[in-house]
Specification:
single chain, 303 residues, alpha/beta, Rossmann fold, seven-stranded parallel sheet, 17% strand
Length: 303
């Protein structure tokens, strides 16, 4: 199993949160051949509170991915994932987020903070923030009203007309290099507007994706999102929106559940399968996802 994936030199996954974490966990056996480029524009929860008081990037999605790549859990990893309870100032904060921010303050750049944690837990795969500059997601809603920040965009009742990053930021150079070297690029699963689209809004990343020779795969969610705006989108509309921001028709393969309406995308390679983890509802099973991606390589790259 998974004999085809092992033949690739560089696999790059784009996204954030639990979705990207599952993809990284599924393919972690690829070691240094695997790179995750992680969204850093979250302004909610523990990450948002740290950003409000200390500035910088959002650490939550990076911390989540690091957690899912830890193969040997011990006292140190449990401390890294500890979330404070109670009603005090620390309530709701994840210690991993605070640790990453503290390392960022000691380090020259955020990527170094991530690499220190990778070294601590012996994680071979790379995790790279989409940018090392503070940035927020901004939307124009259906009434041409400016909506600022991911938490506000998540509660929109209908799809926004337009999304952008504020301010304009440059990508992490290492992340851009990994895209340019990729054989396989994975987008998703994850919150469509707030975990997937922000990475595509960085001009240099969009340009690299536009010019890539890699096979590009969109992995759809297993269930409707909590966000009403995102949950109303068909698979065709999601592909259309992503490719509008990239500026090119680049998505070669869609991995979806068997009940998804594929009208409008029939000309792409469609992998339809039951991929849900029976123990973690609405999350991809890491072994079934690995099998589906191996099928993609067999059908799309080696044929």
């Amino acid at each position: 199993m998974n004999i085809y994936l092992k033949n690739l030199n560089r696999v790059v996954a784009l996204g954030g949160g639990h979705g990207l974490g599952r993809v990284m966990s599924s393919l972690s056996y690829l070691g240094s051949k695997l790179t995750g480029i992680v969204v850093t524009s979250d302004n909610g929860g523990s990450s948002g509170r740290i950003r409000q008081s200390e500035g910088g990037i959002a650490w939550g999605d990076l911390r989540n991915c690091l957690n899912q790549l830890i193969t040997k859990h011990n006292a140190i990893s449990n401390i890294f994932n500890y979330r404070f309870k109670g009603t005090g100032d620390l309530s709701g904060h994840n210690l991993g987020n605070l640790l990453l921010k503290a390392l960022d303050n000691f380090s020259i750049r955020p990527l170094e903070a991530v690499n220190i944690i990778r070294a601590l837990f012996k994680i071979k795969s790379f995790l790279i923030p989409m940018t090392e500059k503070a940035v927020d997601l901004v939307a124009i809603d259906k009434n041409d009203v400016l909506v600022y920040g991911e938490t506000a965009i998540d509660v929109l009742q209908s799809p926004p007309k337009y999304l952008k990053l504020y301010p304009d930021v440059s990508p992490t150079i290492e992340g851009l290099k990994s895209i340019n070297e990729a054989d396989l690029i994975l987008i998703g699963p994850g919150s469509f507007y707030t975990s997937l689209i922000p990475i595509l809004l960085i001009k240099e990343i969009a340009l690299s994706l536009k010019n890539t020779t890699a096979v590009v795969v969109f992995i759809d969610n297993l269930s409707n999102e909590i966000s009403l705006a995102a949950s109303s989108l068909t698979i065709f509309e999601k592909v259309l929106i992503m490719e509008k921001y990239i500026g090119e028709k680049i998505i070669d393969v869609l991995i979806v559940t068997p009940n998804v309406n594929i009208k409008g995308v029939e000309n792409r390679l469609i992998i339809k399968d039951f991929l849900e983890d029976v123990n973690i509802p609405y999350n991809h099973d890491i072994f079934l996802l690995k099998k589906a991606l191996d099928k993609v390589i067999k059908l799309k790259i080696l044929n």
